[in-house]
User: Fold these one by one.
Assistant:
Number 1:
Amino acid sequence: MSTFEPKIVAFCCEQSGLPAAEMAKTLKLKMPDNLELVPVPCSGRIETLYLLKALESGADGVVVFACYEENCKYLQGNVRLKSRVGYAKQIMTKIGLEQERLEIFHVATNSGVKFSEFLLQKADQLRPLGPNLGKIA
Amino acid sequence: MIKAEQKPFEEILEYLAPYNKILLSGCGACVTVCHAGGEKDGALLASALRMARQKIGKPLEIIESTPARQCEPEFAQELSDTIGLVEAVLSVSCGIGVQTLARLFPAMQIFPGVNTLFMGETVEHGVWEERCQACGDCILEKTAGICPIARCAKQLLNGPCGGSSNGKCEIKRETDCAWQLIFDRSKALGQLHRLTEIIPAKQWGVQSRDSGPRRIVREDLKV
Amino acid sequence: MKSGSNLEKVFVNGHFAVTSELGPPKGNDVSVIKRKVDFLRGYVDAVNVTDNQTAIVRMSSIATSALAVQMGIEPIMQMVTRDRNRIAMQSDLFGATALGIKNIICLTGDHHTFGNQVNAKNVHDLDSVQLINMVKTMRDEKTLMGGEEKIEGDIDMFIGGAANPFADPFEFRALRTAKKAAAGVDFIQTQCIYDMERFKEWMKMIRDLGVHEKVHIMAGITPLKSAGMARYMAKNVAGITIPDALIDRMAKAAKGADEGIKICIEQIQEVQEIEGVHGVHIMAIEWEHMIGKITEMAGLLPRPKVE
């Protein structure tokens, strides 16, 4: 049996993703084993480069927890993020990395349950794909 | 400024196939502005290249460096130490920067990572359009500040042609007809009568590249 | 006389001129040219020989024009600035006049990306206005462009140009034709007319500028074959406008082709009444065999014999 547990890097917007993570922790909800949270002041702060670098430096999957589209505190931050994720996915196609390894998930501050559920589903989705062969660990 | 676009990823991978350690050299000027190859976009390309090569079991070591202007020897020379450590260079500066490196480092293979496309303007963030073709004899004074050499597909000096329709060019419907723009602006400036003057044929051979690569010499500046 | 061509003499003698168009073959099949010449001979005063029209490679207009002369019909050699620089064009003018070609029409040409050699290098050394001026210089100053080099022989050409009253900006179109007149053009052929009102407006502007007294204007007419053709042209060809009323008329007709000819005759008769219009240029695209019938029905036959 394979013991591969996908490493997930989750960028968490401090306005939505991070409070949701806190809530999941308070409620003692189950989370994937190999998880790293990266707080950001706004999902719009995430540059395309960070998404690629996360994969390059060891992530098997990258997730961005961002506010719902009309709810961005900084107005267009999550809209910019969407374009950048789109661009990163184009690059991933050229490298030959599966599209499932990068995804945006929209949450609000009280989405503790959704937070943990999504991460568990993502881990399930990534497990059969195996490790990210592009990583330089 | 000069506008460029990154070359297809597959083409770059092909250039780098024989090498295991390269320098990726960006440029802090034009290609940074049009997001083809400055520090950030160079880093993105480097990350993608590393992962692509890792995947096929042929790791590629990339040193990243971005001189302020790759076409200036004083700045390009800053790369000399790093050049000694690598097998080849991928330059994401415009074609000029690539050639400057080729001249300064004759024993080093220099590959172009972008296609240099045109001299142009930023229309809006993320959109750039051609505005000048360096014809060597600027006639913008006659054409209300709009260049027909760069912006008219037929380079008419006494346009518009019969294919100008609703202000758009018949070649590409998204492109503005340069002569419609010249007409509108001349009218706004009260200068419409100037467009009835015939602009004579251009001296392509003397001022433009049709007589080979051009050169400017300022004796007062030479040391 | 500028060149003493048949077309020039027809104008000078005050007759209403008739010209048409001949597209050379996509190869060197001379029988194609002969067939088209046979359809046109006797029904027109001269015929335009197109120059790689729509940037599709065809037999050169100089070669086809020379063959036309041999076949007994007077050509108007089209020359576009798209494919040749000033060296080639002046050289072709030496050759054309030596081969008995006496009329030229100077155009910029359709952009090469429309044709079948899209990766060609675009030339456009000159534009149509500069080309007209170049031919005039060769004819009247007897020198090459630049005025320095003397020409051995006489380059006697009757110089034509094109005008499009239906392109934009409308306000400038007549002024541009005036520019061509100032550059030395002798006659002008317009793009095909469907919007008669707009053409009449343009002619008024031409008259106000006095251009009709310096230059012979020929109205361009293209017979419609079907409502489908009308809709296609209206949608796809830049610089052609077709009023809805005309498209409806074609759509409602029992036989589109017959209605198209009827409209064509009406248009010819209407333009003959407009002051300043000295002729018609009938472009029967891939319908050359109808020219005889059209000119007959429009009362344009027989063509005048001029000395």
Note: Chain A is about 40% helix and 20% strand.
Number 2:
Amino acid sequence: MTTRREFLVLACGAFATAAEAQLDPSQEALRRAAFREAVRKVTGGAPVSRGRVKLDLPPLIDNGNTVPLSVSVESPMTGADHVRAIHVFTEKNPQPNVLSGHLGPRAGRASLVTRVRIADTQTVTAIAQLSDGTFWSDSVHVVVTLSACLEDGLI
Amino acid sequence: MIFRFLLVLLALSTTTRAEIPLAERRSGYELMGRETRAMQDDDATNPGMLWVLDGETLWNRRDGASGVACAGCHGDARISMKGVAARYPAFDSSRGKPINLEQRINACRSERQKAAPLAYESRDLLAITAYVARQSRGRPIDITIDPRTKPFFDEGRNTFYRRQGQLNLACTQCHDDNWGKKLVGNAIPQAHPTGYPIYRLEWQGLGSLQRRLRNCFIGVRAEPYPYGAQEFVNLELYLMWRARGMALETPAVRP
Amino acid sequence: MARVVVNLPATAKRGEIIEIKTLAAHPMETGFRHTQLGELVPRDIITRFVCIYNGVEIFSAELYPAIAANPLITFSTVAAESGMLEFRWTGDNGYAVTQSAPITVV
């Protein structure tokens, strides 16, 4: 006889298999290639160094539809030394670009906050373009789960 | 005299079964990540405020054959609507049954403004409901059951405890017995309606308690009642009573 | 009811860095979803956001489908002088919304 707890675990299992959004390996490979291409478009192939950029995302996400994201870059933001742009990318979303923000010395502070969609557990990358032509980056790995009790479009 | 009072008290006695002790009740807010809570706390970043502000515009707009706005009778909502949402669903004498806030707004529209009622989950109805409920933010939910509302309350409570759907699950099994544990990666909340209408991240929009309840029914593969069904209003009444004393958070953000 | 909300201080000291929070009501339809009948739901997103301070563009952003519905964009600027900040959102299907906010710099 199934106990109530066992029954709930079985029911969860049914949800999980039905609702899982696993990418097949070939799809994943295509999207990773698109991600690399999108980065190359921004950097022109120039080297990207880790550092100076701080990308903040919750490591375990409440809902992949709306994920708070903030990026900040260490920079005096003067005319001679400032952040020109901040680009955010994903490696597994259907499209790699997320946001491109264009700043300058008038920003005062190189920081941006928004909310993004993360399709699956993956790494999100932020790349900052500085006024001296160099590129700096930070990456965060995030785990995405799905909500229970979905809608099924019955509205 | 005392005997009759005791009889009434017995009839009204409402606590039993697997109910969460009052002191152990927690809002779904506490189960969310730090960043999602921050989204709710800051009016400048809470997407529900987009509807609240729309609601403010609608509150002041003349409508219907009467040509009167909500403000025409109710004045400044910040004063007149304070505490109102915390008392709903409330008994409506003319209808002889409890009605929820959306139904109260539509009753005002059709009876006083002589305007067409707004469709459930329409942007306008959600906006006015959110605006009105926002005026009760921070206030404790204030529901007491009396002889008039008791039969409806009992019906709502029975729905909460009744197994239903293909999964044959009752609300209480998750929300009284297993709250805090994970279901498909999300923590199961105690299911207190402390912030409706809510901005639900899953919907990417604002929605009513009935919309959320329909999601639950679909979740256990049960046929959901249509919007406005008395069964839903009765369940709302039970849920708000179950959350009595907890602070209203409208517009809340939830996963 | 096209709706955007802009939050920034009404007054600031000269040279102070102020934070500006903006919200726009928009579904940000990705163009990757399908209806239950298998039809593709066409893309409908905000594609660009610009902030202009007394006629000078001080911040802009390109938005992609990965930006969540009802987009929040928070950024900063130096309170340089009193005047007007103008915020513009443009996107698919001719979407164009403008909002202005005054600032007094002391």
Note: Chain A has one domain: 4-144.
